Amino acid sequence: MSRRRFLRHCLHGAGLPLLAPLAAPAAPLAGKPLHILMITFRGETDVDKGFRAYLAEAGLQVHYTVRDVQQDVGRIPAILQEARALAPDLIYVWGTPITLAVVGAYDDPDRQHFIHDIPVVFALVAAPVRSRIVESLEAPGRNVTGAVHVVPFDVQLRVMQRYRPLQKLGVLYTGSEPNSRAIVEGARATCQDSGVALLERTFRTNAQGQPTADGVEELVAQLQAEGAQWLYLLPDTFLGSVYARVTPAALQAKLPCFGAAELAVRSGAALTGLVSRYYSVGQLAGAKAVEILVGGKSPATIPVERLKRFSLLVNMRVAHSLRLYPPIDMLNYAEVIAVGDAPPIAS
Hints:
By secondary structure, this protein is an alpha/beta fold. It contains 12 helices and 15 strands. Helices cover about 35% and strands about 20% of the residues. The protein is globular.
């Protein structure tokens, strides 16, 4: 099966066009520099680089004020006070927790603590409707729009089933993270419709209610003992910070990981994943910003979109460690990588 035919098969039923190109940047804009406040989560990523590159290619002169929360969303209130004083032309935000901390849920009655009079563009949000960031992807209806980075779960599930038979899927996530709860809620329904049992575990929390990596190995072992055939690495903020604990435990348990985000495969030692390129997600967010800054459109009317071009990644070092190789025909359309040092597996 060719790459195009396989992806068309996986996307069938998801309502997604195949391999549609990203729109070209707008014509160069002359005039004084625009001011964009960038709020990042863990320093600059390829998403942020793609956003900046798209605006540069569009010919926009931009002055960036960058504020990184260093994985602590508790820093957002002070940044929002600064944002009101700076009055930027646009605010760029990274990820679901930051987006919610900046604009709030669309039905939150407490508007005074959030930004509602400055255009906001998000990137790397997995489930903006389920997270209550927007009421509708087609018409956000408020001062925020952006780019979704996660491939629809039903499409990911079909790829997992294509790689190996699947009756039980394990997932480990942060119970307090709205994004993660929303993804798991959707996964439950899809798994039920597909005849797959979803085995769930949440990270333990400390006295302050914050997630902790304590006992991660035990949680992974529980999922394996219950018969999980994949461990699904959803785009969970805390999970992404403890890949170094989670994936070695999964490998030792001979439990392959499937990544929903590029970082899970390239840095997190997942065996495989169907992902959107981070750089391209940033470009898509940049396209939304150009519509606002150049086209004069309101973010309320600009649809939230996901990329239409996905990449299937297979980490062959992990495949070799697990002795779990992809079907031969899958190698015709997958990008084979060999990153990380997969630990030896006890026999």
